[in-house]
Amino acid sequence: VRATSDPPNRLVSGPARTGSIRAHNLALLLRTVAEAADPPSRAALSTATGLTRASVSSLVDTLVAGGLLVETGVPTRSGVGRPSTGLALDASGPAGLGLELNVDHASALIVDLSGAVRAQKTEYGAGSSGRLASLARDMASTAREQGLALAGAALAVPGLIDSGSGDVLIAPNLGTRSALGARGFADLVVGIGAATALPADRISVENEATLAARAERRAAGPAGPRSFLQISGEVGIGGGLVLDGQIYQGRHGWSGELGHVTVRPGGRPCGCGSDGCLEQYAGQQAILRTAGHADDRAATIAERARAGEPSMLTALAEAGEALGIALAGALNLLDLDAVVLGGLHAELAPWLAGPIESQLRRRLITARFALPAITPSALGGNASVLGAAWSVLDRVIDDPLAYLRDGRTD
Ligand SMILES: [Zn+2]
User: Fold this and answer.
1) pLDDT in tens, 224-239
2) How far is the CA of 242 from the centre of ligand 1 (A)?
3) How far does the centroid of ligand 1 lie from the alpha carbon of residue 63, in Å?
4) Which residues 6+ apart lie within 8 Å of 396 measured at CB?
5) What is the pTM of this model?
6) How many A from CA of 154 to the centre of ligand 1?
7) Dist. CA 36–CA 198, nearest whole Å
């Protein structure tokens, strides 16, 4: 399993060593095309990157030949002279396989380099970890049928991952249901490798909230918030942090454990060993328990709230207040543009946003000058698995030379 930390931004980090200049410039061109609003011409790429036109042409030829870029054939707005064609990421090039294992479901999807979702499958129910390898096998054969080469796979899990080894250290909410320990995850990765014919170093395991933040950053595009906290609410509450457009994972890959921020010292005991943690007030099970429906399903929370059930409205007000207290701490510390409510909390935003804002107005010292936007995620339950597929493609875009050298699997 490969290390999973977001690589430092190759485009702005220090001067390239002589041997890596070609790798650096290939990545620079590919990232520039990936982030352009319209397919840029070679001339526009030369202007945008500062590379000579001759260098751009030679590097672009390499990327086209390698199946990473494609000529769109649509003349760009370059005025008079020879009509130039635009360049776009090649939808028939490498594809990313995203996988997600959560408490009550397992998901898999394939995203091509242009960003299109080419196939998706989700299975619900406990014990779905056993189904993950078969989902991966289905997706790998679908990719083959569509003529796509998988560049890698990434698995999203609600747990703490060691960013060096890729080992899952703790996944408390999975552990109680599916008895998956660190050993179980290692076996799962072996199973995914066997199902997809991908070598172990192209399968990563990452925290689901961090991956959800990656998907959110991409979905929001260049006009979206530069710095935000993505909340990924299920049974537990994860947080993914994007600072100045970059995923921030922390020293070990453990940042964003919002669910274990104390909101009531001496309060309800938590599975982590502490007490009064946010997830004991605003997590899925906590909300259901507070409302007197401990054995109900997550889907019924919004249903009951819409029906105006008083105990559910009270539970959601308490959840929103607890979220607001935890978020005020994070926002006082980090000065972010926005908080994105994802997972379960996206659907519950109509009931949570009010109490969150009222806590922020009280506790966030800068609230009177600029209240950060509190917005529901538009990605629904797909954010983590989409982010997983994107993490594979981001690695190709960040280091196309490595992909061209040894990334072809067909
Ligand atoms: Zn806790």
Assistant:
1) 899 999 998 888 899 9
2) 23
3) 47
4) 68, 94, 96, 113, 151, 403, 407
5) 0.84
6) 26
7) 31
